[in-house]
Amino acid sequence: MATFISHSPAETQSLGERWGRAAQSGLVIGLSGELGAGKTELVKGLARGLGATGRVHSPTFTLVNEYDGGRLRLFHLDLYRLETRGQILSAGLEEFLQREDVTVIEWAEKIYDLRSTIYDLKKVQIEILSETERRISYDDSGA
Ligand SMILES: Nc1ncnc2c1ncn2[C@@H]1O[C@H](COP(=O)(O)OP(=O)(O)OP(=O)(O)O)[C@@H](O)[C@H]1O
Ligand SMILES: [Mg+2]
Fold it and tell me: What ligand is nearest to the CA atom of residue 31?
């Protein structure tokens, strides 16, 4: 695990942007962290790093947003509203875990115990340290 201390939304976006520039086809990024931690801020950077056009916002009423126009397509999932094991299992997540695109998932811990392996998964944990500081811990192996 690597750790990064972010002091602003812009710094969090920059980290995501770096990952977007380096992202390989098939990468799945799992984001965990409480409400307002900065998961969506990280996705904004990721989209920018991939060169995707279109505004990033959480897919609150749909399960997934798709951002095109970049080097790879980006699928943005938010599992916040999925509560039961049944809802999560029947949400059709499988297809996103094996695409030749890049997928980023907010509240990803909801699927970790339901899936034994997610190929090419980068786990990310964001902790709120203060109003503007975040500790971002992430897998630095592989992708
Ligand atoms: N260092 C920081 N990194 C990221 N966001 C920060 C930071 N400091 C302050 N913020 C603020 O925290 C909020 C993060 O919101 P964001 O929507 O990204 O959170 P989230 O984790 O996606 O929450 P939710 O679970 O509701 O989707 C924003 O209002 C942002 O301006
Ligand atoms: Mg969010």
Answer: 1
